[in-house]
Every structure is written in C-alpha cells, then in structure tokens.
C-alpha cells in the first residue's frame, strides 16, 4: 500500500551573464553548470525514460536561465568551452604519460570521455535544444517545470507592487513562450516570502497584498517555502562548508544564526496549506531529507571517496583528488577513484530511498494521512559541486519509482489530488542565512536598495505617462523594463554579501542602473532621435533578455 508521495524540487538558476566576460565571472558560470549539471541531469532523466522507468520530479528553471540556455550566442560559446576542456584533457594525458603517472593518465582519460560525452549529448541526443528537451519531458508527464520571478528578483524587498507583479508576469509570459503552456506553480527566489501588511498613501491606509495575491492574479496556484516559515521554531540553516552554489567557492546557504524565533506550530511540511485564502497553496521544504544532503557533518557529499571540489590541477584545472578525510588540508588529498565514488553513490541512493519510505510511512501511521516529501535543492549542487550527485539522484528516482510504499509525483499533481484542508498565515522569511532577508539587505548592501526603489517608481511614472507608446518610444520603454528587471536581480546583493565577487556584482548593478537611467531619460523627454535609437539598439545587443517584454506590465498597482 502506498503511504505517501515524494518529489525532488530542484531550483535551477544562473544570473544573467550573456556577454559579461569569462573566468572568473561571467558566461563561464553558465557553461560550467551546463556541462556539469543541466546536461548530465537531462542525460540521467532521458536514460530513465528510455528504459521505461516511471519517474517524476519537479524542476524549477528561472526565466532568466531559460532565456540564456535558449540563446544561440551562449550555446555557441558553450561549444567552445567544451572543446577547450577536451583539448585540456588530451594535453593532460600526454603530460602524465611523460611523468609516468598511470593513475593520472586514466583520470585524464576519464575527463576526456566525460566532456566528449557532454558534447555528443548536446549535439546529437538533444540537437542543441536544451529547452526543448526539458519541454518534452514535461509534455510526457515526467516533469513539472516551475516558473519564477523573471530575473530572480528578491521580491520581499521590492517596494512597488508593480515590480513584484512585473517580475512574476514577465516570468510567466516567458514560460508560456518556451514551454507552450501557462505555469501552474512557482519557485519564489530564495524562498523569499512576504505577507500582506498595512501601508499608507497620502494619509490613507491600504493593504499591500502578500506575494500569494500576485501569484493568484497570474493563475499560479502553488509555491514553496522554507521549513521554519511553516513549522515555526528556529530557522534551519545549511553548513558553512557545504559544497554547493553556482558562484564558485561560496556556500550558498550558510548556518543560520536566527534573528527571531517563532513558537513551533502544529503545521507540517508533509502537507500543503492554503496561504491566507483558499486560492494559492504552499509546500514547505522537508528538512530531514534535506539535511541528509546539506549537512557538512553527515551529508552524503562529504563522503571521503567523492571528488574533491576545491583542489584543481594547476595546469588544466581538472579535479584529480578525492575528499580523503574530514577537514583535511588540500595538500594531503589522495587521488580520486571514479569506481569507488560510483559505488558510494549507489549505496547512498539506497539509503536515501529507504529514509524517504520510513519518513512517509511513519507520518502515515501516526496521522492517517497521505503525506508528501518535497525535497528541495539547488540543481547546481548535483554534478557541479557534488560530482556524483546526479548518479545518486538517478538511482533514487529508480528506487522510488518501483517502491511499494512511496509514490513519485510532481508538486502540482500532488496538490490537485490531495488539496489543502487548512489555511495558514505563512510566516515571513527565506531560506537564506538566519531565515530572514539579511543576506540581501545588510550594511554592505543597503546602499543598493534606494536606487532600486527609485527606478521602480520611475518605471511606474513612465508607464503612466506613455500608456499607449508605439514604435521607437515603445522600444525605449521596453529596454528600460529589461534593465529594471536585471537591476532587481537578487544575485548582485548576494554576491556582495558573500564578499567573493563584490567588485563584479557592484559593477554589474551599476551598469544596469546606468542603462536604465539612460533609457528612462530618453522616454521622459519623448525625444527619440537617431542617437537614442542607436543607444537602444546597443543596449539591446548587450541585454536582449525577454525579447517580447511589454513595459505596460509595470503599470502602478497601488491604490
């Protein structure tokens, strides 16, 4: 008898980096994630599909990521990136043969086969169309693809409802364009949630709606939240030395030092709840399965036989070492053995599958309810940071697809079959450090937000001044809207807070602010001359994301 359901909820996001340079920041972020996470994920899922395995999972692809992996220029640069990896592997084979190091010769050959396989899959298995490959899996019922805010804007800190709605509306429209259907569910960036509250305008009080209201207006009926916003208690952090995150050697989620404590509630992450009113549901992240991966002390990615992320060959950049030991200095790492790591991945997959069965069985037996584990992770953890993670995930999906007690599902499918029975006043918070908004608003980033808020208001005013613009003026306003979305990206304050890409993030923020102001100044003057047209074309060539954007989505939504 099935006692519960399980779904991986993978959140995939890379900041907009088209034409933003290469190493150490820029397009190489995306190329690494394509070669180490997204393409291997597709290979794993298509392998399961081709063997007839009835798997299902939930996959978030942020709109700005989808736009980039559909961009011919980025994909052409990706081919160059992979060809370079293949050349480096060939060179390493020759180098290690001369040094008479047979194990390293074999490891270099391992990487040669790996990147040749990546290129072959990209060109032959998926015909260079990764968005289409994900779309097919959704159309066949294996995937539910989530939408998100257009550029991963951190919604709780945006001041104007027009910006919150605009981020979600542009994201939903891009989803419709790429996947041929409207989205049913959304991943709020960083699980950042803000309920409704009283505000005042010209001395008159009014209610600023919670984020669920904007989702409902777009026909989106489900989103996801961090554990503590549902269950109460201490916000749950992730280990500071966990190996994950798309930004280099930076832990994306850190140990929480909570600023607030909420008394535990009777709510549980095993069930969905309506948020405020019975229109939009929320699912909380299951913590026990999450920490089985995230924990630095006992999470799977820290196993000594898995590949060491942080030590790289000084010539080729390949990672030839294994973790070897806890908190062991990089100088004392042993060489990697892919066979050992593969054996560990299979064992860990079996352990995780049994854990999911036990947790769901226990919840069912104690509550007589059919519960769900929503196991949420950053997609880039698997493959990029935890090299063996996608083999592990493939085995978990295979185990659970044939489980006698657990049913694989997608998030919206579960909520449709098992709708919420209770309404929740969801707590404000995120899955960032401390469970609050401080990763994005703190003494190092507070200088950014007045500029964002001023730009939000300016976009509203321009939309009101030109409600029916056409031709060149409409093009100017649309480019201003693109730059506003890119300015609002949560990635810039995040990278400044972590400190390891502060200058890069500061420059990117200021560039988008400058570009927005230039377009806004032209639109405000209504004088579209040749210089303005050329500037708009120049900026569009740099930032051509969301080509069908309509600036009118930023019309004021305040009373």
Into which percent range does the helicity of residues fall? 40-55%
Order of helices and strands: EHEHHHHEHEEEHEHEEHHEHEHEHHHHH
**Individual helix count:** 17
Count of the separate structural domains: 2
Structural class: alpha/beta
The major β-sheet equals: 6 strands, parallel
CATH topology descriptor of the largest domain: 7-stranded beta/alpha barrel
Q: Give me the CATH architecture of the largest domain, please.
A: Alpha-Beta Barrel
Mean residue pLDDT: 92
SS strand fraction: 5-15%
User: CATH homologous superfamily of the largest domain, by name?
Assistant: Glycoside hydrolase 38, N terminal domain
Total DSSP E strands:
12
What does this structure look like?
- The chain folds into two domains: 4-435, 7-stranded beta/alpha barrel (Alpha-Beta Barrel); 449-554, immunoglobulin/albumin-binding domain-like.
- The protein has 17 helices and twelve strands.
- The longest helix is centred in the middle third of the chain and has 30 residues, at 338-367.
- The strands form three sheets. Strands 1, 2, 3, 4, 10 and 11 form a six-stranded parallel beta sheet that branches. A four-stranded mixed beta sheet has the order 7-9-8-12. Strands 5-6 form a two-stranded antiparallel ribbon.
- The chain has 559 residues and is of the alpha/beta class.
- Helix content is 47%, strand content 11%.
